[in-house]
Amino acid sequence: MPHLFCFGLGFTGQALARRLSAQGWTVTGTSRAGGDGTLAFDGSAPLPMSALDGVTHLLISVPPGTQGDPVLNRHAEDLQKRAAQFHWAGYLSTTGVYGDRHGDWVDETSPLEPSTERGHRRLAAETHWQSLGMPLHIFRLAGIYGPGRNQLVSILDGTAKRIVKPGQIFSRIHVEDIAGVLWASIARPHPGQAYNVCDDEPCPPQDVVAYAAALLKREAPPEIAFADADLSPMAKSFYAESKRVSNQRMKEELGYKLLYPTYREGLAALLSTLPS
Q1: Are 219 and 144 in contact (CB under 8 A)?
Q2: What pLDDT, on the 0 to 100 scale, is given for residue 53?
Q3: Which residues face 59 on adjacent strands?
Q4: Can you give the pLDDT at residue 232?
Q5: Rounded CA gap, 168 and 11, in Å?
Q6: Helix (H) / strand (E) containing 52
Q7: Tens digits of per-residue pLDDT, 92-104?
Q8: Can you name the CATH fold of 3-273?
Q9: 270, 269, 94, 89: which is closest to 193 by C-alpha?
Q10: What is d(CA 9, CA 20) in angstroms, rounded to the nearest whole number?
Q11: Is the pLDDT reported for residue 276 higher than 80?
């Protein structure tokens, strides 16, 4: 019986878990506090390695922090010793490893030149994970949205902002398409490969906010110039990079067809998930 263990069984991991569980898989994993069937893991203490007994597939969805990757910090040696145990392993990274391209296109052959501290941490984690000898696949995710985490919700709760920075382009991806890509990779593994996971239409972020407002038949928030926006340092850092991300390798090698090719299909489908 195939068994997936996910370090960080959160928003994305749970989407994959639902898909695998429906196919009869066993799915276990961690969360920061534990509970709801997960083991507690926040990097402050190691897990008992018996948690990986019988595991055939491994997914890492824990971001690196200022002290590095918490899973690697605690378990790099353990995982290296068990490398032959896994049929497939996946590391969820970000498109931030490409850095700022001033709106130009990137693909998996583009130089990895992160321009933020978070991007540098991700690249370091990618490199370390690749050194452990597992059948590793790297998935560089664009901005994630899905049920409960989307611009429809932010319009309704009054937190949406239509911030305009000339030339700013983001890519994004619905969480169910991430799960679909991971499932496609498990079915058609290419150890050592990296994939950009994003939809077909990189676009300015204010366009997505305006479309969400139109779906809700509400007036869009007023445009705010980036220089005038009251953003947290974390939010500002996202605007430090602008690029268009190609998903051709994902489609061609894995044969994956997006459920939500653009934010329009994704947001329209999410209307039904909103509280009545």
Answers
A1: no
A2: 97
A3: 6, 90
A4: 87
A5: 26
A6: none
A7: 999 999 999 999 9
A8: Rossmann fold (3.40.50)
A9: 89
A10: 13
A11: no
